[in-house]
Amino acid sequence: GQVRYSVPEEAKAGTVVGRLAQDLGLEAGEAEARRLRLVAQGRRASVEVSGASGALVVSSRLDREELCGKSAPCALRLEVLVERPLRVFHVELEVTDINDNAPIFPAARKNLTIAESSVPGSRFPLEGASDADIGANAQLSYTLSPSEHFSLDLQKSNERNIEPELVLTKSLDREMIPVHRLVLTATDGGRPSLTGTMELVISVLDANDNAPQFNQSVYKVQLPESAAVGTLVTTVNSTDVDEGGNSETSYTVTNVIPLSGRDVISINPKTGEIHLTGALDFEEVSVFDFRIEATDKGTPPLSSHCKVVLEVLDVNDNAPEVSVTSLSVPVPEDASVGTVVALLSVSDRDSGANGRVRCWVWPASPFGLEATFSGSYSLVLREALDRERVSEYEVEVRAEDGGAPPLRARRGVRVPVSDVNDNAPAFAQAVYTVLARENNAAGAELARLWARDPDEAGNGRVSYSVAEGGVGGGWRPASSYVSVDAESGRLWALQPLDFEELQVLQFEVRAVDAGEPPLCGNATVQLFVLDENDNAPALLPPAGSGPEAGGVAAEAAAALGSESGTLWAWAAWGAPAGQVVAKIRAVDADSGYNAWLRYELWEPRGKGPFRVGLYSGEVSTARALDEADGPRQRLVIVVRDHGEPARSATATLSVSLLEAAETALAAGAGSSSSRSAAGAESGSGAASAATNVWLVVGICAVSSLFLLAVVLYGASRW
């Protein structure tokens, strides 16, 4: 509905016009919370909404005459907005008139010339006063200062105006009184009333005693407002029964209502033709009243008057005007259908069908117009928005009036769409396969991961992290091996990788945006470690004495790199060719070709009594042994892998050549020492088991005491 208030003009600033918030149904304090306010309408309204109370108060001087002129009633149409949700209310404020303007005559002094031959009853129209007020405050009454020759008669020209006429009541005698000085007083109908005066100076002349007479008292003319300058309005005509110069008449315009009409027409003083000298505007003035005076050239000249009423007809010369009174942008992409985006005001200064306006939106989707009041529209959302598809709309509001031909107007509205976090980051691949060589440098880049988020700003800013856990690293999490740069997605190694420790590492990388709430996406990374030949063959100690070892005895040390240990073996004189004396055992921590070992006899070179199996490592006799071979043979054996470059280890084997009986004794000693070593080893194992049992008992006791202390402390605190 529409709220209406009235306030007298010239009300003091701060005067409460009405309790607007209460009349609109708002609760106490809601007016300020919802930002109750007025929307500017192009001209100063002189009122405002009090933010605390929600009352409509006078903010500056209210002058009804300045706001509305002579229009009655003087109604100001205001638009009031509240937010959350956005609503518009229409308030009509009527400014009532007070008597603050006194009547004003066109001139402070009026000179009249009246022939002494004028008969009693002769009438002389006077220019009436004007009052800027309206209603009773503008109802004027006139009085004339006392005179025995003149009286005042009031003629009602229309419902609004009263025209005073000076009436001759007694014949004039110029020789007795050549000049009469009277005062015409105009009094308005206000309370208290205000007055204005004009001095009448009446000169009495002889001779010419017949005034010109118009053939009609009122000329009514209609012209369209599009009439061109120079158009003939009408021709006034008067006759004078006098002869000679007393019958020659000239025409002048003496009074114009409103005063702006002085520049609209001109009259030919000889022919009485009235032509347009200015443009007509129906929206400014629809009716002009002109007073035409015909004056003869007698001595003294006589005059008569007629009225010309010019009615201006409306033409469709004003295009519709579209203005945006409120714009709520940007619009979030999750805004619901029906959300008000903008408030628009559409007007056309023409009247009738020329002023009836039809509005629509182009293109229609996804916005539409809803009429909220006469000339007011809301731009509302018709369909759901998607910023990733369209981030901004250029909406055009078009208006067309009902004239012939119709006039059109358009107003563009830019509606940006703000982003919400409705898209999770998505990796280009669900599974990434990464190959990395072992012994890589710490900090080396392994791969680059990238996830796309079509949102913008923080909603589209992606940060990367390695999810806890991982398969293939044993008990160690994946984050101890690799890390990912939070901004760039660069995957890099935290430490050198060791194929012998880790062959495959599978883990997840998470991409999280900075939206609220944040959204995330995952990708699986399979990291395969490629073997490098970084381990040299390692020699193992002998397995013990036995037939296969040929009596290998005592200590043997593993060799790493260039280090070497000494192995001992015995062989009997006369041993046949092919008898195994010892077996060199070695392992390589690498895999594949890097761990495939071969054995070579380095010393002695040439044809010696012994040889080494290329891949078995067995040391055997190359021929039958004899005394010429000496009591001891020193063999240097090199173990190499097939890596690139190849790595090697060296073993030194000392073979003693004995008689067959001595060889048997050495073998027996070796067996007994092996058994004693085994017994010692079993004894030490039993002692170690007992120690482990007592260690477990001690740990349990300490844990029980700690738990009891915690329980007692909690109980005392409770």
From TrEMBL:
GO terms for molecular function: calcium ion binding. Pfam families: Cadherin, Cadherin_2. InterPro entries: Cadherin-like_dom (IPR002126), Cadherin-like_sf (IPR015919), Cadherin_CS (IPR020894), Cadherin_N (IPR013164), Protocadherin/Cadherin-CA (IPR050174). Signal peptide: none annotated. It is found in: Cell membrane. Coiled coil: none annotated. Residues 6-105, 106-214, 215-322, 323-427, 428-539, 575-667 form the Cadherin domain. The keyword Cell membrane applies. Keywords: Calcium, Cell adhesion, Cell membrane, Glycoprotein, Membrane, Repeat, Signal, Transmembrane, Transmembrane helix. One of its GO terms (cellular component) is plasma membrane. It is a single-pass type I membrane protein. One of its GO terms (biological process) is homophilic cell adhesion via plasma membrane adhesion molecules. This is PCDA2 protein. It comes from Malurus elegans (Red-winged fairywren).
